[in-house]
TrEMBL record:
Gene3D superfamilies: P-loop containing nucleotide triphosphate hydrolases (3.40.50.300). SUPFAM superfamilies: ABC transporter involved in vitamin B12 uptake, BtuC, P-loop containing nucleoside triphosphate hydrolases. It holds the Pfam family ABC_tran. Belongs to the ABC transporter superfamily. The chain crosses the membrane at residues 256-276. The keyword Cell division does not apply. This is Manganese ABC transporter ATP-binding protein. Coiled coil: none annotated.
């Protein structure tokens, strides 16, 4: 896949700027970058799901529009209406529609393709369930199965591992790697820096502009990572903060953070009430225990919702370890 001078804007804001690169066929490529770097926008731009301001994308010399039937796209789960009354089996069957034509209905052949896809993601027993009854990991497996049913040559996935259980993540990675081994091209938007080296053959480090691109071992280096992050927040950030940002992509940890903030605030109110009632010893004990918890929760919350800038604003200083790196 050849990308030439690709630029994408939302209104007056340039999100992807003048990117040129070549994505190797038969490999698993990760699009890596901080929050707001334009990763999902770039992925959609590759297959013209959104209008591009300039540039061209071709596959083996053909415009990308000419090979749409060879492309399977898996969007982020939060774009799907889970209240829509459709079963797991029918969801996967949608993957066979592009090859059916306009007026044909799925027959035995298409249903067998859907069953095979469900077996591959270990979800055949859920075929009659409504998609709204599934967990995040189960739902992601269904979307992978729908892509498998398309029998495509190119698979594009937008944040497929966000908010899912580890069992589902391991299974999906195995499915994608088998597709790669069969000669398929896999392109994945990914956020977890700690798994990049294990998952991907090639990486694209993106931060509105192309920061680096190539084989993972040679490209996903500490220098390139810090260059990518510093471009985003104007200063280096240590591995602890990268780790915390990665954790906060998981839904259950977001809920845990929110719960800790609520508990901290409520406990602080109770502690203040006890102090005002004259129970100073107990009040001092509670306030000393609660205030650090509230502060930590508040800083973590700011860091998550501001993409990291808020942490440094609150601290007012840089981490010297990060600077030395």
């Amino acid at each position: 896949m050849l990308v030439e001078n690709l630029s994408i804007s939302y209104g007056q804001k340039r999100v992807v700027e003048n990117i040129s690169l070549q994505i190797s066929p038969g490999k698993m490529t990760g699009i890596i970058g901080p929050n707001g770097a334009g990763k999902s926008t770039f992925l959609k731009g590759l297959i013209n799901l959104i209008p591009c301001e300039s540039g061209m994308v071709t596959w083996e010399g053909l415009p990308i529009e000419a090979i749409r039937g060879k492309i399977a796209y898996v969007p982020q789960r939060n774009t799907v209406d889970l209240t829509f009354p459709i079963t797991v089996q029918d969801t996967v069957l949608i993957g066979t529609y592009p090859k059916l034509g306009l007026i044909k209905l799925p027959r035995k052949k298409e249903r067998e393709i859907a069953r095979t896809a469900l077996k591959q993601v270990e979800m055949l027993d859920f075929a009659k369930r409504q998609i709204g009854e599934l967990s995040g990991g189960q739902l992601q497996r269904i979307f992978i199965a729908r892509a498998l049913a398309q029998q495509a040559d190119i698979f594009l996935l937008d944040e497929p591992f966000v908010g899912i259980d580890m069992t589902s993540e391991v299974l999906i990675v195995e499915v994608l790697q088998k597709l790669r081994d069969a000669g398929k091209t896999i392109i994945v938007v990914h956020h977890d820096f700690h798994k990049v080296a294990r998952y991907f053959d090639d990486v694209i480090l993106l931060n509105q502009k192309l920061m680096a691109h190539g084989e993972t071992e040679a490209t996903f280096t500490e220098a390139n990572i810090l260059k990518n992050i510093r471009t985003r927040i104007r200063m280096g950030r240590c591995s602890v903060m990268l780790f915390l940002e990665g954790l906060m992509h998981y839904e259950f940890l977001q809920k845990a953070l929110l719960t800790s903030v609520i508990v901290g605030v409520v406990s602080g109110v109770i502690g203040s009430f006890i102090i005002l009632r004259g129970m100073s010893l107990m009040g001092d004990a509670i306030s000393h225990a609660v205030l650090p918890g509230v502060a930590i929760s508040y800083i973590l919350g700011i860091n998550f919702f501001s993409g990291g800038d808020g942490f440094w604003c609150c601290c007012g200083t840089r981490n010297r370890f990060c600077e030395s790196k």
